[in-house]
Amino acid sequence: MGKVALLKCKPNQIKEKVHKALDLLGGISEYVKKDDMVVIKPNVLCAQDHETGATTSPVLVKSVADMCLNAGAEKVIVAESSNWGIDSMEAMKECGYDKIADGEKIVLMDLKKGEFVKKDIDGLVLKSINIPKVLCDADVVINCPVLKAHTMTKVTIGIKNLSVGISSDEDKQHSLHRIGLYPPLSDEMEKNGSWLDQAICDINSNTNTTLTVVDGIYGLHGKGAPLFGDKINTNLIMASDDRVSIDSVGSKILGHDAMEVHHIRNSYNRGMGEIDLDKIEVVGDKISDFKFDINQSYNTSLNGIPSNVTVINGCKNCKACLSTMTYVLSRHKDEIEKMNIPINVYVGKYFEDKKLPSDRRMHIYYGNCAGSHIYGGGFVPGCPPRSRRQFIQSIGALDIYKQDEGLDTDR
Ligand code: SF4
Q1: Which residue has the higher pLDDT, 171 or 105?
Q2: ∠290-295-301 over CA atoms, to 5°?
């Protein structure tokens, strides 16, 4: 039976509640022994403060690290591999992690710049993976994710944080995030979800997780999550030594049955933990104490985009472009409508059966998949594109971006 400690937690109670949660599991000394080398993996996917709901609070990580040191750990390494193209060390510094590291007992590490160990595996989709050596060498691995909705995987909690979030930039780009560029999976393979859903399980099942401590002080949901989206004051923390159970409880709080979240169900099917809420002992507060109106970023909706924009949706395997594009369009709805120019935005690459408007209009190809179809018009590169500025610039409205960012619009 899985056991999950679930506690209400205000932003000023983090240290006290982390202690209480781990005590409810039997105390940190159940997991950390004298002279252990501990690796803590937060979620610092980008340089956004934890109060945005995108990243793990450094206070939570410091609380866990101090408990490990008090239990006799030799050293705690806070290790991160931020989103593709983002300098992990810079992101951690921007998020305040430099203030919790002392350079001796608690040190920061950019996993992207460390050594990787190649492992041949018999995964659902991956046959070989690269795991950071420091994670293979660690005596104890503590995963400290955030509680967030996710466009492509419904939720991102612990299992996903310790899969994509430990991969090199090259693996993120070529094995995990170019899903729409590959041929669609067979019907049989699709029963286990998308390529990403299965790759997450392939990587996570080949790594150790001693404990998961979830930062649910602020969650993130809605269009653009897990990077943009809307913050939600979930005011909770969770802890467990069962990585599937804690993701199952977190999914429930985010409005999903974990059996419908492919990467969690795949992990359960592989025997990595308990998914059935009836077989998980929840200690502390009750799941029913946490009720939120979650705007599912997974259901990428075109409601709320400017009325002069027509989206030609050619996505089959992947919704990442659709998510970031609808986020930018809805954010600038009024300004783009004022331009009064009909615009087609192409996303994905399966356009064969799409009926296109025949009037004169601007054509924008958003993302590398759509880029393979360019025949005139603007192109916003990326997989998915990461620059809001580039998208706005491509429709000839850079001033919208500049005003939004408080930049000088005359330049
Ligand atoms: S370009 Fe966009 S739709 Fe294509 S694989 Fe990348 S993120 Fe997915």
Answers
A1: 105
A2: 165
* Any atom of ligand 1 within 6 Å of the Cβ of 384: yes
CA distances from 393 to 12, 115, 158, 389, 400 (A): 41, 39, 36, 6, 9
Query: What are the pLDDT digits (tens) for 194-236?
Result: 888 999 999 999 999 999 999 999 999 987 788 878 899 999 9
Interhelix angle 243-253/262-269, rounded to 10 degrees, is 150
Tokens of 152: 């492509």
370, 362, 345: which is closest to 396 by C-alpha?
A: 362
- Cα separation, 250 vs 238, whole angstroms: 8
103 CA → ligand 1 middle, Å: 39
Q: Which residues, 6+ apart, have CB-to-CB distance to 13 below 8 Å?
A: none
For residue 180, the ligand 1 atom closest to its alpha carbon is 5
Rounding to the nearest 10 degrees, give the CA dihedral for residues 194, 303, 251, 211.
Answer: 80
Of 154, 160, 135, 166, nearest to 246 by C-alpha is 160
Please tell me the least confidently modeled range out of 55-59, 215-219, 330-334, 398-402: 398-402
Specify the residue for token string 């994905």.
348
What is the per-residue pLDDT across 354-368, written as a single tens digit (0 to 9) for each? 777 777 788 899 998
Q: How confident is the model at residue 411 (pLDDT cuts 50, 70, 90)?
A: very low
The pLDDT value given to residue 394: 83
Ligand 1 centre to CA of 312 (Å) is 14
User: What's the residue count for the chain?
Assistant: 411
Does 318 contact ligand 1 (Cβ within 6 A)? yes
Kindly report the average pLDDT of the chain as a whole number. Answer: 91
348 lines ligand 1 (CB under 6 A): yes
Q: What angle do CA 156, 56, 64 make, to 5 degrees?
A: 115
In terms of DSSP bridges, do strands 280-284 and 140-144 run parallel, antiparallel, or are they unpaired? unpaired
DSSP string over 47-108: S--GGGTSS--HHHHHHHHHHHHHTT-SEEEEEE--STT--HHHHHHHTTGGGT--SSSEEE
What is the complex's ipTM, to 2 decimals? Answer: 0.99
